[in-house]
Amino acid sequence: MNTPIPGLDDILFTTDDGVGRITINRPEVLNALRRQTYVELLAAMDACADDHEIGVVIITGAGDRSFCSGGDVRGQRTRRPEEGRSHMRTLLKLGESIRTCGKPVLASVNGYAIGSGHELHLMCDLTIAADTARFGQVGPRVGGLPFWGAVQMLPRTVGEKRAREILFLCEQYTADEALAMGLVNKVVPLSELAAETDAMAQRILDLSPRSLRLLKMLVNHGSDLDHPTYAMGAELLASTFGDDENLEGINAFLEKREPDYRKFRRR
């Protein structure tokens, strides 16, 4: 079907036989997320929540290299706290929409799931990964703070010690490593990813929609208690935008060099 939401630039959105399909469509930047992308993702998720005929949602990335490489750093160089707070509110609304839509949301990870792209897959209920996928967080490397699910969901998903490793060291993990630590549900060859994701979606559509809605609400309950930390993290991150330490990470990324954070520990 054609997209039911007019004027989309950063995503593709279709509905077909009970499945809402959302594709981040910025392959030229490895499907990095800018403000407009978040706005469109939120509109698509809300549309899926409101459409009674949709029973499952699939989120993926365009191309075969990246699910989502995180936030688009190019737009962060000029971001200041006031603009940042508005941006953070959009992230919070998107996360809330994924968690409260009442329908299973599947992440079909076809490559890099890094930074906020990694948090996006954490927000989803189930994750199917291609064998080429890579997972990781980058907050301290780029002067940021992964408040949007990583600090809340990772300890529950992989255990606190491994979560601290992922958050603090900013390393990347293969699909098989992610499977071994319980970060994804299944790994398949890239050529089979779309078919396997569709097959899982069809299995879900054969189940009671009311039971699934109630189960999602109940499973979410424990981590729903972390909700205040999302708003707190958003405010903390927004307050750092534009200062020297924040810009060191952003400029280093854009200039393709290693950041020098040691200077911020010198007297």
UniProtKB/TrEMBL annotation:
It comes from the Bacteria. InterPro entries: ClpP/crotonase-like_dom_sf, Enoyl-CoA_hydra/iso, Enoyl-CoA_hydra_C. Pfam families: ECH_1 (PF00378). Belongs to the enoyl-CoA hydratase/isomerase family. PANTHER family: 1,4-DIHYDROXY-2-NAPHTHOYL-COA SYNTHASE, PEROXISOMAL (PTHR43113:SF1), NUCLEOSIDE-DIPHOSPHATE-SUGAR EPIMERASE (PTHR43113). This is 1,4-dihydroxy-2-naphthoyl-CoA synthase. It comes from Nocardioides humi. The gene is menB_1.
